[in-house]
């Protein structure tokens, strides 16, 4: 398991930077486990887990609005394998803000609309230049992003103009996939008819509602009047925005790909890694702070310098060794 550590000023109101720790478990399309450690004003350490993400690095951290506030960028991984292969899937951006120990999904904040539009334009160019490969994978992302921008109807019309049939694509969701996990029981609670793949637009509408991108009213506006394919679809909380500007999707950090016939990363690996990660992260953090703890324990004259070197350079081997040598080589002061 590979372990990475960095200092990030995620909370603009905090005097100290936050420590972001990521561990790569290995495996196909799997998995980086990331946690944030934050020194609170009362001197206690707070710990927040982002969960499992595809890839082998930390999530991107950017000051998108240019206001000095850094945001954490992830993607909604529930889109992977839903309507295309992993290579053909596009996952919508999820923008999160860390403040006072809480991670808030701020994807639909107007300050980030230009970023979402640029992301959509860039991915659309790549999709077109790539020969419109597996169109439903891109189109699902496009409609979700348009919904985040308050332009759901426009995105839906473009999807209908370019969508591929479920039969031709070989990917999609069934009524069984869209059932709550307790009801479908890994498929055992579904009839053969419920296991048949739904038409792409119908499945996409229910999928977007269940993941918080659109409202039931928006689903009704683009689908035929019929009995819903999903038993008791999850309601979308109301907001003060217009009907096409709903709550952003929940953070995708812990999202899992819907059940399909394609191979997906074993859930057991993620579960075991998730349970082990806090222990490893805690040990890594303790080791990282050893020089600082020694300096303060011995009450050395240069303890503030040791603290600075540990925080700024302790994540490198040379910096950590230098801080440790300073902490041990200076004489201890009497208390």
From TrEMBL:
Residues 240-257 have a biased composition (Low complexity). InterPro entries: Phage_imm. The keyword Membrane applies. It comes from the Bacteria. The chain crosses the membrane at residues 275-294, 306-328. Residues 224-266 are annotated as: Disordered. The keyword Membrane applies. This is Superinfection immunity protein. It comes from Gluconobacter roseus NBRC 3990.
């Amino acid at each position: 398991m590979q372990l990475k550590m960095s200092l990030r000023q995620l909370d603009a109101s905090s005097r100290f930077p936050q420590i972001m720790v990521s561990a790569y478990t290995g495996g196909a399309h799997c998995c980086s486990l990331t946690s944030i450690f934050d020194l609170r004003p009362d001197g206690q350490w707070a710990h927040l887990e982002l969960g499992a993400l595809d890839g082998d690095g930390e999530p991107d951290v950017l000051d998108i609005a240019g206001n000095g506030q850094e945001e954490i960028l992830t993607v909604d991984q529930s889109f992977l394998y839903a309507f295309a292969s992993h290579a053909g899937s596009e996952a919508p951006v999820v923008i999160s803000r860390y403040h006072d120990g809480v991670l808030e999904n701020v994807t639909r904040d107007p300050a980030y609309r230009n970023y979402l539009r640029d992301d959509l334009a860039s991915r659309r160019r790549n999709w077109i230049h790539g020969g419109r490969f597996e169109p439903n994978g891109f189109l699902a992302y496009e409609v979700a992003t348009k919904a985040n921008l308050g332009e759901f109807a426009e995105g839906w019309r473009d999807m209908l103009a370019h969508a591929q049939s479920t039969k031709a694509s070989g990917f999609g969701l069934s009524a069984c996939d869209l059932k709550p996990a307790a009801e479908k029981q890994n498929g055992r609670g579904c009839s053969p008819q419920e296991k048949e793949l739904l038409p792409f637009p119908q499945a996409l509408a229910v999928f977007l509602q269940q993941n918080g991108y659109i409202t039931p009213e928006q689903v009704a506006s683009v689908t035929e009047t019929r009995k819903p394919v999903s038993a008791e679809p999850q309601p979308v909380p109301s907001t003060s925005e217009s009907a096409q500007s709903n709550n952003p999707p929940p953070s995708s950090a812990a999202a899992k790909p819907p059940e399909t016939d394609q191979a997906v990363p074993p859930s057991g690996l993620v579960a075991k890694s998730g349970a082990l990660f806090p222990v490893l992260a805690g040990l890594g953090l303790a080791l990282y702070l050893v020089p600082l703890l020694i300096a303060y324990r011995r009450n050395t004259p240069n303890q503030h310098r040791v603290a600075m070197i540990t925080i700024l350079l302790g994540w490198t081997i040379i910096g950590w060794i230098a801080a440790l040598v300073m902490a041990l080589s200076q004489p201890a002061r009497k208390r």
